[in-house]
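Components:
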Amino acid sequence: MKIVALVKQTFDSEAKIALEGGKINRQGISLIMNPYDEYAVEEALKLKEKHGGEVTVVTVGPDEATEAVRQALAMGADQSILVNPGTEDIDEYTTAKILAKAVSGLEYDLIIGGFRAIDDGSAQVAGRVAEILNLPVVNMVTKLEVDGGKAIATSDIEGGSAVMEVPLPAVITAQKGLNEPRYPSMKGIMQAKKKPLKKIGLSDLGLDASQVAAKVKVLSYSLPPARAAGKIIPGEPAEAAAALAKALREEAKII
Amino acid sequence: MAKGILVFAEQRDGKIKKVTYELLSASKKIANQLGEEVSAVLVGKGVSALANGLGEYGADKVYVIENDALENYTTDAYTNVVADLVKQNEPTAFLLGCSITGRDLAAQVAQRLDTGLLTDCINVAVENGQIVFTRPIYAGKAIITATIPEARPVMATIRPNVLPVDEPQAGKSAEVINVSANVGSIRTTVKDVIRQVSARPELTEADVIVSGGRGMKGPENFKLLEDLADVLGAAVGASRAAVDAGWVPQSIQVGQTGKTVSPNLYLAAGISGAIQHLAGMSSSKIIVAVNKDAEANIFKSADYGVVGDLFEVLPVLTQEIKKLKA
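Structure:
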């Protein structure tokens, strides 16, 4: 079984965000593999262990995103492709067009990615890739089984979950709960250094910048207004609880 | 020639979701500024009775697409019929709620129409003739304003429970247009649907949320929060610590790897206030924290704090609110 895992490098979830010259300051931020993509890589590896085959990791990003790719290789992925778009001015359309083009040159039975990235949180790249490649997509999957040319996926829906059957090849996006991603072993880290890591640019895919130009234009970045600390209600627990109920009723007028 | 604001009228089980009214109210405002009209598209099986009510909330036209195959949401069928409608009508903008369904559908339609999509927006306005959206990034740690200058339609999903709903105009009807649509081939088969049966509001639409964290000490103690939720008509949420401990399902997690919520009142019990939790709830209007650790980070963001044992505070709070509401 041939599986393609789509990954993205993001800021660490504990990172504090600051602005520099009207943009997000990237200096000193520790970078990680998007946690939802870790679930995707883990699921790809579990499927490979069960059914045999290989896992190819594909990412779009600057050269420093090599770190995230290396992590996936150290976890057990077989090979990887990093496409550097050569510009920071990209959006989900750009990324999806590049990923789809890169993936279309590979053999695959399944494409799996995180359902969203924790940085821009837009949850649309994998769906766009499915649309471009004319593949069915099941998003927010918490359980996945593959059997005889089809996948059975349990996914989050409004107010519950649904069990969906979908023919392969298909695109699946991982939701938290799908699995517990493994940590790379020391042996895995050593082996990863020898695994293929192909770094390419747009022209290597036969794309030019105008074909993938961003549709979205960001006008401004800002930080949210800090919430001011409010009041601590004094007293013994019972007394404070009663005062709190009263304050919510009479002062905040919210209950 | 692109014209009009089109809204995806999301319904479930024969009921229009509140975010649809929020979208219509916001669309009315931007449409007035652009001198355009507001339309809605309503998709499903046996949903046409819902069309007229949308007029009261600001829709000038409602396109109704009914088909047995549209009873349950499937990405393929909904994408096919909605993308076709958008292609035929060429609206300036197409807006959806940032629900699970809206997010899924929006990505597919945007790509099929080769356009841009801004997801999970918290505001929309007209500036210099362009529709400008505000959206949080890094789970709310930063905010951007952005636009889609050339591609049409401009597409966005709007976070539920953030934009206000204008008072409906009783008796105002919309022109209802039945559209026969080609559902196309549906590649996914829905084998089973498991609904979480709950009398409580959905987390992302709730006006009041009571959440528990590590300080709840075990799954059995969430009963205290449920009792409080019952008197407040609230939804129950949880922090990552409580979910990772296996006490409560992941579906109620609030935070960077869970749901983003903005209720009128958010009560955090036994939650320390890690940055990833704050990211999911700091746009709540009033935040209340109950924690026995006076140094807990959550107090820095709370409008009201009680430093004390939640096992003593919560039962009394439930009783006191019950009395006030009686």
